[in-house]
Amino acid sequence: KFDPDGVDLARFGGPEGEDAGFTHLMAIRAVGDSLLVLDAGSVSVFDLSGQLRSRRALADTIVSDLPRLHPDGQWAGEWIIEETAEKALTHRSADGLEQSRIAAYALNELFPGVEPGGMFFIGPTQARSYVYDFLPDGSLVWAVTDEATVNVRRAGEDETIFSAAWPAVPFPPDEIHSMRERQAGLSPPLFMNVPEKYQLIQDLLVDETGDIWLYVLSLDRKGFLHLSDSGEELGFHVVDADFDLLTARVTAERGRLYFLAGGEDGTRIYVAAQTTKAYPPGPNSVKPDQTQGQVN
Q1: What does the pLDDT read at residue 26?
Q2: Which candidate among 19, 48, 88, 188 keeps its CA 20 to 30 Å from the CA of 164?
Q3: Model pTM?
Q4: Using alpha carbons only, what angle is made at residue 26 by residues 58 and 260, rounded to the nearest 5 degrees?
Q5: Cβ(261)–Cβ(272) under 8 Å?
Q6: Contact yes or no for 220/245 (Cβ under 8 A)
Q7: CB burial readout 90-126, b (16+ within 10 A) else e
Q8: pLDDT score for 124
């Protein structure tokens, strides 16, 4: 815990096995007067002084983008289920209790040799994933990265609000060859996917007004598709950047979208797009037909 000047005020947690200890911290987020902490094997709720309020053990690894959760603490995440060898999108309460299983697919579709009940480790590649965020009313917006479709889950039911036919960008043949050589050299429990194409939707987020933004990579367009909460197209912001778009994280803050791009020279922040009229445009604000690579 730090003050606004970066002074270390307090610490909590510790190694696995200690009271309130962790195995492998994955995400942390303040929700009201609590801290929601996702560990490799549990989800915990602390008060702001670091006192543990509750902890729920997780049978398998859940990867969640906790910065994108609803103010009431509900969250979603990708769940790697060892028992069934599936990747699922799960919707959870603040204390980690599953509310619904939204979607799932068998990992051996993309990672040949993965078997239910066995131990496996899958490497991060351009394989099918789920991207998601919450609307202000608590409805979950989600998409599968290899499909140009956006869904909203309301009251336990999914509604498709946007769908398009975008041609995917093919993976470079030399990279496919190199990855196949690496794949052939692996043995269980290590598995990797060799993609033929890049994922169409690289990211999804909801801004403070409730509008939806898709970070799109296709042969037709590369940038941000702006949608209303009902799926109406509101515009497109083209991205032409001098950094690796596939490793950059996208976030929204005070009416703008940003890329966070890490490199050997440190982390750089790029203005990606203006999302609302709530804040006056700055010197690096972006018109609807262009995106700057300006370092801020």
Answers
A1: 76
A2: 88
A3: 0.80
A4: 145
A5: no
A6: no
A7: bbbebebeeeeebbbeebeebbeebeeeeebebeeeb
A8: 64
